[in-house]
Amino acid sequence: GDSWGIFTFLCAALCNLPALPALNCTEELGAGQSIQKTYDLTRYLEHQLRTLAGTYLNYLGPPFNEPDFNPPRLARAERVPSATVDLDLWRGLTDNARLAANYRAYSRLLCYLRALDGQAGTAELRHRLGHFCSSLQGLVLSIAGVMSSLGYPLPVGPAGPPAPPGTSVAPNDFLKKMDDFWLLKELQTWLWRSAKDFNRLKKKVPPAVVTLRLEARGF
């Protein structure tokens, strides 16, 4: 009957579909998936850092592990990328500019964290720092993936000016601990703000869009 004829026609069409070079299936869902993955990773790192920061500040000892310790930022700490930008100014940036700032900052922060990993005094702390560094490296790569999927070029150069020669090592133990304290503090702020950035961005980009594009070749 007619139903059997229609079924036979559909089967034949499906069997021959791969042989039609003019029909391309383009999946434009990479950006949405990359943004969701990056958002999830920032939230995971936020959670992971809370435990790591508590452990590391206890390792530094007082006054760094006291809840009300809030020292002024020293000139040495300015080498660490700061997230203390006015929120209205930050939101006024383009998506590309915010992504580039995140990419540069986490690349720089990762270098400092790896230095901490080599200086930690206990095996447990080195293990925690190593695990966190691996996760943060994943975030850097994930942000790069988001930028690529949105058609943005990766930024060139560091997040800020390089440290002047001879200033890589703190002149005394207290200032070294202060550097570590500010590194963790800035990292917490970056992750908090990045989570908000990617949460807003994922609302802009559809999570999954599949389009069929018919290319005229010889028609």
TrEMBL record:
Protein name, as recorded: Cardiotrophin-like cytokine factor 1
Gene encoding the protein: Clcf1
InterPro entries linked to this entry: 4_helix_cytokine-like_core, PRF/CT
Keyword NAD (UniProt): no
GO cellular component: a single term: CRLF-CLCF1 complex
PANTHER family, sorted: CARDIOTROPHIN-LIKE CYTOKINE FACTOR 1, PTHR21353
Annotated GO biological process: cell surface receptor signaling pathway via JAK-STAT; positive regulation of B cell proliferation
Family: Belongs to the IL-6 superfamily.
GO molecular function: cytokine activity
Subunit structure, interactors included: Forms a heteromeric complex with cardiotrophin-like cytokine CRLF1/CLF-1; the CRLF1-CLCF1 complex is a ligand for the ciliary neurotrophic factor receptor/CNTFR. The CRLF1-CLCF1 heterodimer binds SORL1 (via N-terminal ectodomain); within this complex, the interaction is mediated predominantly by the CRLF1 moiety. The tripartite signaling complex formed by CRLF1, CLCF1 and CNTFR also binds SORL1.
UniProt organism field: Nyctibius grandis (Great potoo)
Presence of keyword Signal: yes
Subcellular location: Secreted
Residues spanning the signal sequence: 1-22
Keywords associated with the record: Cytokine, Glycoprotein, Secreted, Signal
Role according to the record: In complex with CRLF1, forms a heterodimeric neurotropic cytokine that plays a crucial role during neuronal development. Also stimulates B-cells. Binds to and activates the ILST/gp130 receptor.
